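Appendix B. Extra example for self-study. Work through it before the problem class; the solution is given directly after the inputs so you can check yourself.
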Amino acid sequence: MRFITAFAFDIKFQWRHGFYFAYAFVCACYWILLNYIPEAYLHKSVILLTFSDPSALGLILAGGILLLERDQGIHDPLFVTPMRTRDYLFAKVASLSCLSLIAAWVIHLTSIGIPKSPVLFSVGVVLTSSLMTLLSISVVVRYHTINGFIMMSQVYALPLALPLLGFFDIWNTKLYLLPTEGTLLLLESAISDLTTVQIGYSLFILLIWNYGIYVWASYSYKKYVLGKIGEGRDGL
Amino acid sequence: MIDVQNLNFTYPGRLEPTIHGMSFNIQKGEVFGFLGPSGAGKSTTQKILIGILKGYQGSVKVMDKEIKDIGPNYERIGVAFEFPNFYSKFSVLENLKFFGSLYAGRTENPKTLLEQVGLDQATNMKVSQLSKGMKMRLNFCRALLNNPDILFLDEPTSGLDPVNAQRMKELILEKRKEGKTVLITTHNMQAAEELCDRVAFIVDGQIKLIDSPRELKLHKGKQRIVVEYRNKGELMSAAFPQQGIGENHTFLNLIKEYSIETIHSQEATLEQIFIEVTGRRLI
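Solution. Structure tokens for the complete assembly:
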């Protein structure tokens, strides 16, 4: 129940801070850009865009939200209520995954139409968005400035972009231990069929990574945010 | 309601304990004050009591439950930190509704709470538009949302004008009448004198003294009466032993024959007692 409350409030928070307007603008830019991409490159371009933006949206936005909340000093009063870290993290993941999913579908529908496998495509976007959101929270709690956070989040996220080398045939070694190898497969389900093994592998690697990063995010949040509650952050 | 025995706490990475050997208990319906200078260990103690800091030694029981075993029951406690932080882009009412929705049990009507602190006109104002005093009052409302059995208040009158500070004190005393336990952490000796049934002086992570402000003021004060009076237009004063004052003829003659301007007993102030007991000032 608290998760639902926190999730609904996170959506309002993101709306109130203009995240949805900003993202609508970004999507409009992508739509215009995709209209100028030649047909031969369109599919790969759409997958690349979906991979690098809606899926990875949580990486920047989750950190931004947490910095905003910290600036307003909201974590102190929030965690002397029955709200628990699990509810807080799940609410962030769910709210940002919704935004990611909407953006990914808008980009697809306005460029190449309905994905061939809508469910797998959506699962790919959601699991990648949740992974990036949790990674972002794990990193941002360690930094106090937006610059420090942006720089370090890119350092942490860079290895996750390596499967793109294979996607563009630059380096033909599959990096099966990286979750984003699974992401690319699931996003490709929008334009081609996947084997059962590919689907199983993609879901498995993304879920395992999500769990691992969730544990890290939970530990980091408790140590760096909850451990400092009551130290007098003045959000006046 | 709260029972602390031989509490010791050392922050990770530090050699010296912040709290050592602290023992006290707070009864149901009592207003208890933690008084001490910055860095004395008041906030650390409060953070242990509300379950934020774990890894302490000794026993800390809140509502008969050991905090380190099961954690605090946030459904039944209310906390107002010194800094009144809220979601700044949301209205007063939206903030209270959100915080209220986090409790599983029945919560107070936010509008009723706002009326009690005189914020009924600010219901739809964004928090970013409020003054510090208004935010402090809103902070108090938030701590009351779940109708808690124990209230933890950090500097509850800080930033309030005299009228609202008085109103806040009245509300705290109303909570005591309702049987709520209130733990106040403050530098403000006057507020502590007016509100607390007992106060604890904390210095260097230890409790130096626990007593009621009234008893302390009486016993630590000078047992005499000082009278200021006019004699042929000149302001003069005289001091008399407090004991047997009704039979002190000099005193009785003086108040009969001269124009009296003031008569004061010489009880000590809490601040004087604090300095005498701890050797520190409340800064």
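Self-check: The CA atoms of residues 143 and 149 of chain A lie 6 Å apart. If your reasoning did not lead you there, revisit section 3.
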